[in-house]
Amino acid sequence: xxxxxxxxxxxxxxxxxxxxxxxxxxxxxxxxxxxxxxxxxxxxxxxxxxxxxxxxxxxxxxxxxxxxxxxxxxxxxxxxxxxxxxxxxxxxxxxxxxxxxxxxxxxxxxxxxxxxxxxxxxxxxxxxxxxxxxxxxxxxxxxxxxxxxxxxxxxxxxxxxxxxxxxxxxxxxxxxxxxxxxxxxxxxxxxxxxxxxxxxxxxxxxxxxxxxxxxxxxxxxxxxxxxxxxxxxxxxxxxxxxxxxxxxxxxxxxxxxxxxxxxxxxxxxxxxxxxxxxxxxxxxxxxxxxxxxxxxxxxxxx
Amino acid sequence: xxxxxxxxxxxxxxxxxxxxxxxxxxxxxxxxxxxxxxxxxxxxxxxxxxxxxxxxxxxxxxxxxxxxxxxxxxxxxxxxxxxxxxxxxxxxxxxxxxxxxxxxxxxxxxxxxxxxxxxxxxxx
Amino acid sequence: xxxxxxxxxxxxxxxxxxxxxxxxxxxxxxxxxxxxxxxxxxxxxxxxxxxxxxxxxxxxxxxxxxxxxxxxxxxxxxxxxxxxxxxxxxxxxxxxxxxxxxxxxxxxxxxxxxxxxxxxxxxxxxxxxxxxxxxxxxxxxxxxxxxx
Lengths: 302, 124, 148
Description:
Chain A is an alpha/beta fold and 302 residues long. Chain A has helices spanning 20-32, 34-47, 56-76, 80-94, 100-121, 126-169, 191-208, 225-240, 252-260, 274-297; strands at residues 174-177, 180-186, 212-219, 244-248, 269-271. Chain A starts with 19 loop residues before the first helix and ends in a 5-residue tail after the last helix. In chain B, helix 1 packs parallel to helix 2. Chain B has one domain: Transcription Regulator spoIIAA (2-Layer Sandwich). Chain B is 44% helix and 18% strand. In chain B, strands 1-2-3-4-5 form a five-stranded mixed sheet, sandwiched between helices. Chain B has 124 residues and is an alpha/beta fold. Chain B has four helices and five strands, in the order E-E-H-E-H-E-H-E-H. Chain C is an alpha+beta fold and 148 residues long. Chain C is elongated, with a radius of gyration of 16 Å. Chains in contact: A-B, A-C, B-C. Chains A and C meet through helix 7 of A and loops of C.
């Protein structure tokens, strides 16, 4: 009896008219000829140059498991076990680089290998052959679809996971500790990049409820007036969102540029290096914590 | 009353729900002035999370609210300024001083608790 | 490219509408969220001037583009009393004693191009533009779809 599965409800493998003896005969035949048929299948896979990323041993062991699950599915009329196996298999081979057309290819090859073998085995009894093929074909097609769909769904899931991981890695703002984020800037800083970084930093302040941001420009060789202004504006915008900004890694060259450009350094907190900046940040956060605790206990702070 | 004002102990919390017309801004200013007097509130938190634009008029109104409130013994904190709104305000050179700002309601209350005890936020 | 958007500015709610339309147009042209807010804020200032000082007017927003960039043009026209001293009006602090500063210098700082023409007794026209660079990918996509 077909049980509901997580994905679309699926029609049972057995058509009502097929008698169970016919199915039993089919399953027995497939089990008996297991070794031969499986080997034939492997040969066809290799000839078609599918599963190139896998070794011969790997192909062998996976193919054996698929064959057994295939025959079980035919016997029980339930694709559940097959689906679970297909998802499991898919997860393994997707990361190896196996593609959808290969998976569909090998399943269709199996269907083909078994059909041809049935044809040869029962060729002396065309009537019986027809009946057994009628029993086999829809079941085989159902299985091919099940395996194909499982693979595709699994592949999509893996891709989504990878994309999410990439998105996380490409955010330049790091949350270092509670209420503290760091924006390390490396390389050439032009106006457009500076605007992007500002947006990302302010979003991170909101997302992480940061009270202190450390902007580290150790990796920046030089900046011009526009970028210097962006930096100042970023500090001011952070303040509007309730966060204090500390600039670290200011080389003497850049400091001089800022002075020459008339940038008011006194409104920015600057610290020599990142380590010092982090210590200053913690001091700021620690100070606030003491203040909160004092306020909560009703004791006036020092 | 267009903008709901909640009383939380010594503080009033005004949450702006959507873009306000100018008359609604003025209405808020008057309502807050009334309530500060009525409840002798020590602080006001104005939540502007829902404002997608803060222009010179809104900024002026917020400053007026803060100055009026201070005359009646209450400090004001603005919270919830959105990232892009913050950038626009800075580029516009909109000054909110002497208003204090904080990230959100929780932080705003913390600032008020500090301020109403006579301690300034990290020296500003 | 889509056509221009015209908004009559007479009362308070029209300003909200103008801001929203400006933001939407900026978004459609692919401006960043921040740039869209800058545009909306500048429009807000100009629209308010119209309502408060000039008994209303009209704002027209038009998308433009050339080989290298996309742009948004905002023309705000009124038939009010006009601005007597434009340079003074473009200084910060103008009218601040009365608390009715025009916000013009701020709006200029938000946009890439800003022009103001005014004639006493006739009216004022403010033209502001914001640009963004068209990148390679966008140009290729448009070529393939037979435009640009």
